[in-house]
Design a protein that fits this description.
The complex is a heterotrimer of chains A (about 450), B (about 210) and C (about 140).
Chain A: E1 10-12, E2 15-17, H1 20-58, E3 61-77, E4 80-93, E5 96-102, H2 117-124, E6 132-138, E7 141-146, H3 155-178, H4 184-199, H5 219-222, E8 231-232, H6 240-269, H7 275-305, E9 308-312, E10 322-329, E11 337-352, E12 355-371, E13 382-389, E14 398-399, E15 403-414, E16 420-427, H8 433-440
Antiparallel strand pairs in A: 1-2, 3-4, 3-6, 4-5, 6-7, 8-9, 9-10, 10-13, 11-12, 11-15, 14-15, 15-16
Helix pairs in contact in A: 1-3, 3-6, 6-7
Chain B: H1 14-17, H2 32-41, E1 45-49, H3 56-69, E2 73-78, H4 89-100, E3 104-109, H5 116-125, E4 131-136, E5 144-147, H6 152-162, H7 173-182, H8 187-207
Parallel strand pairs in B: 1-4, 1-5, 2-3, 3-4
Helix pairs in contact in B: 2-3, 6-7, 7-8
Chain C: E1 7-12, E2 18-19, E3 24-32, E4 39-52, E5 58-66, E6 80-85, E7 93-94, E8 98-110, E9 115-124
The chains are: A alpha+beta (about 450), B alpha/beta (about 210), C mainly beta (about 140).
């Protein structure tokens, strides 16, 4: 963001010029405006609309009344005339007679004016003069009464606007405040640590005190049977939740924007356009467009590619042993290309001073199968069955506190639309049996 | 065990370059003793300021023996990323200060990790006779003890010392200069870059044609 | 009185330097050049440690300690035997970022705070050195 505001920061190649602090401040102010503006809007809506309506529905007391008159109250504004229905009633509370010109709680704040005179006339037809009916009065102020109550249709969706401002503004502001005094290196290393921890979420703590100490525990993996081969491998990182939240956010924001769009269009159709609302819709609509575009692309990708099932004939793996691998790539469309690799990587973490530095380096890579699948009939978009042999002198998996040797099967694919994807399936390699000699039998 | 790296060990491994293993290079006319004297003159309150990887923790390690020799009981904390509070909390620290009385010195490596409130409270806590020495990336509101700003010549000297028992062609001055420049003057990252240079060289030597050994 | 600096002699049986998992590592060690009255204790460890670009880790697999007799004397100049069955893992490894080294380490604590240290490295397993490859 600071790069878009040239006055606050400007990037040339690998160097950043300009004021990083100024950029952070502008960003914080931007989010603060959304946050506090959202709260102000929420408070105003609560005071003007929600609380009065709630009181009318829950607190007001019923009393019989007589309709003495009914009319349309008109107010002329810059955008044209606005109307509201008004009914004169007589009622009695505690032996005292009251008269009131009212309709709904909006009358109390001199509100309730909207476009559309005919709709108001229709409403007034239900209140013929002389009719005896029921009204509801405020027990704290009996001179206030209404003849209709309930929540207006637009109240709930209208809440989405201040709520989304509060969430977006609060989240962004909180993030800026928390990271105010931190450096880019600290934020980068925090991100590195998160990624580093995520990679090893799949396995338990190192198996100290066992027959093969400092090799990851593959118990969870052996608890997952396959349908074609003995075990089904689990993917390292699942993207399902990210897609869920993206979709939910898109739906929420789109619904809110549509509610405002309907209100704006109605104004135009009735000859009383609300230009402020129309202008306000422009940035909201731009965000909706981006959200929908991103969400559709991700959903299409998830639907087209589908799950990648990887099964293996045995686990853990041993050097110089042969294994069978089965891969099924589902999806509505066949993928353009698919490759399976056997991959080994060293990963380390180093804490010096106040920083944590992580690094990773590949030390083995072998392509097991590379196919351009052709789909015929039903079934997975692509299936691969391949036999492979572990390298004879492969280093076993190792998991110390700060140093790791990790093996995995990597699936690389390209969708029909040319989108590439990359999925990893951790495996555990033990030392070769003949080298473990007598100790293995103990 | 030799205190210096020996072939075939990678001289830029963490065991040889971590604070304490790699000595701090004091500027001319300065020493651990002179800095400790300066700290004492400032009422045992001071800050060591410098960017990432400059050697602040290394300087702290170099000062430790002199601080102990000066009779200060050290209460040391090394804060890592995300550690916004002191381990054990302030209550435990206050108890330790009360036990150690006026002879204690609270040493915080990574002062900028603390939250604003924690920093404020720490300064107040250490006003009661106990000293406070911190390392930070920027001004921490304490008397300046040292500003650690390495330059390329410092790094060149460091590397020469690490490679004292290695063949001359192991790492050239040009490679050191390039590593230092590309890492934006971050000494630690420059040493890690030289770690990769050494590994690449060793890997190349391994792959060079040689008689097969049975 | 010898003016020689105290030092250790560590010898592995058969002068072996390479072992397989489950085999017995056996040998002897002695401290030369130190007066028995000066030696407070002698320790021998069979351990592995990591070296490289990550934080170092050290795990002791076998530990043996000699203490002075009732007169406060410890004659460590006589060869002292040790043997230990080596575990399956971790095996010695010469990686790019991670290296795993096995060794026999002897340490003597002398009077006046002096220490004597010596190591004899050995290989466990037959894993060849790692070679850099490109990321997938």
């Amino acid at each position: 963001m600071s790069r878009r505001f040239r006055l606050a920061g400007k990037k040339r190649g690998d160097r950043q010029t300009g004021s990083r602090g100024g950029g952070s401040l502008l960003l914080a102010l931007f989010f603060a405006a959304f946050f506090f503006g959202g709260w102000a809007l929420l408070v105003a809506m609560a005071q003007e609309v929600l609380i009065p309506q709630w009181r009318a529905n829950r607190v007001f007391l019923e009393a019989p009344c007589v309709v003495r008159g009914a009319r349309i109250d008109e107010r002329v504004s810059d955008g044209g005339s606005l109307f509201r229905p008004e009914v004169s009633i007589e009622y009695e509370v505690g032996g005292r007679k009251y008269t009131a010109r009212t309709f709904s709680v909006a009358h109390f704040h001199d509100g309730g004016y909207t476009a559309g005179r005919d709709a108001k006339l229709e409403q007034l037809k239900q209140f013929p003069v002389g009719q005896k009916r029921v009204c509801w009065y405020d027990p704290e102020r009996p001179e206030r009464a209404v003849v209709v109550r309930g929540f207006t249709g637009g109240a709930a969706p209208a809440l989405l606007l201040p709520l989304s401002f509060i969430v977006l503004g609060g989240g962004g502001l909180g993030f800026r405040v928390l990271n105010w005094a931190t450096s880019a290196e600290r934020r980068a290393t925090m991100a590195q640590q998160a990624e580093y921890a995520l990679q090893f979420d799949r396995f338990d703590q190192p198996t100290e005190g066992t027959e093969f100490p400092y090799i990851p525990n593959d118990g969870p993996l052996r608890d997952s049977p396959g349908t074609r081969l003995k075990y089904r491998l689990a993917m390292a990182v699942s993207s399902g939740w990210a897609l869920f939240w993206l979709t939910a956010g898109c739906v929420l924001w789109t619904g809110m924007t549509l509610a405002f769009l309907v209100a704006a269009v109605r104004g135009f159709l009735q000859g009383t356009p609300d230009w402020f609302l129309t202008l306000f819709l422009a940035p909201l609509a731009a965000i909706v467009y981006l959200l929908i575009k991103t969400t559709v692309r991700q959903l299409r990708f998830a639907g087209e590619t589908g799950a990648t099932v990887v099964e293996i004939s045995d686990h853990p793996l041993l050097p110089d042993r042969e294994y069978q691998l089965y891969l099924a790539q589902s999806g509505r469309r066949p993928v353009r290309s698919l490759e399976v690799l056997l991959f080994c990587q060293e990963r380390v973490a180093y804490q010096q001073g106040t920083d944590t530095r992580t690094d990773a380096r590949p030390v083995f890579q072998q392509s097991l199968a590379q196919v351009v699948p052709a789909r015929d009939g039903r079934g997975p978009a692509c299936e691969i069955e391949v036999r492979f042999r572990m390298p004879r002198e492969a280093m076993h998996s190792f998991r110390g506190k700060h140093n790791h040797v990790c093996w995995k099967l990597v699936v690389r694919g390209r969708t029909a639309r040319g989108q590439s994807y990359h999925r990893e399936y951790p495996v555990v390699v033990f030392p070769t049996f003949h080298e473990t000699g007598v100790a293995a039998g103990r | 065990m030799s205190p210096r790296p020996q072939p075939p060990s990678n001289p830029f491994s963490t065991r040889w370059v971590r604070p304490g293993a790699l000595g701090y290079r004091f500027a001319d006319g300065e020493s651990a003793g002179s800095l400790v004297a300066r700290l004492a003159a400032a009422g045992w309150r001071g800050q060591i300021v410098g960017p990432h990887g400059a050697g602040k923790s290394t300087l702290l390690a170099a000062l430790r023996p002199a601080l102990l020799a000066a009779g200060r009981g050290l209460l040391e904390f090394q804060l890592h990323d995300g550690q916004r509070q002191l381990p054990g909390g302030f209550r435990a620290l206050r108890k330790r200060i009360e036990v150690a009385r006026d002879a204690s010195l609270v040493v915080i490596d990574g002062h900028e990790q603390l939250g604003r409130w924690e920093r404020f409270y720490l300064r107040r806590l250490c006003l009661r006779g106990c000293g406070l020495l911190v390392t930070a990336h920027s001004e921490a509101g304490l008397p300046m003890l040292a500003e650690v700003r390495p330059n390329q010549e410092t790094v060149q000297r460091l590397v020469r010392e690490l490679l004292a028992d290695y063949p001359a062609e192991t790492v050239s001055r040009e490679q050191v200069a390039e590593a230092y420049e590309r890492r934006g003057g971050n000494v630690r990252e420059a040493l890690f870059a030289l770690y990769d240079v050494y590994e690449a060289r060793r890997g190349a030597a391994r792959e060079a044609p040689s008689p097969v050994v049975a | 009185m010898s003016a020689m600096e105290p030092s250790f002699e560590i010898r592995l049986d058969g002068d072996r330097r390479a072992y397989l998992s489950g085999e017995t590592l056996a040998g002897e060690y002695r401290l030369v050049g130190a007066s028995p009255a000066d030696v407070r204790s002698v320790e021998l460890s069979v351990l592995w440690y990591t070296e490289g670009a990550g934080d170092e880790e050290l795990v002791v697999h076998f530990f043996q300690r000699q203490a002075p007799d009732h007169e406060g004397r410890l004659d460590a100049s006589r060869p002292c035997r040790f043997n230990s069955v080596l575990p399956n893992t971790p095996q010695s490894y010469e990686g790019l970022l991670v290296k795993i080294h096995w060794c026999v380490r002897a340490r003597a604590f002398l009077r006046q705070g002096k220490e004597v240290l010596a190591e004899q490295a050995f290989l466990l397993g037959r894993v060849p050195p790692a070679i850099a490859v490109e990321s997938p």
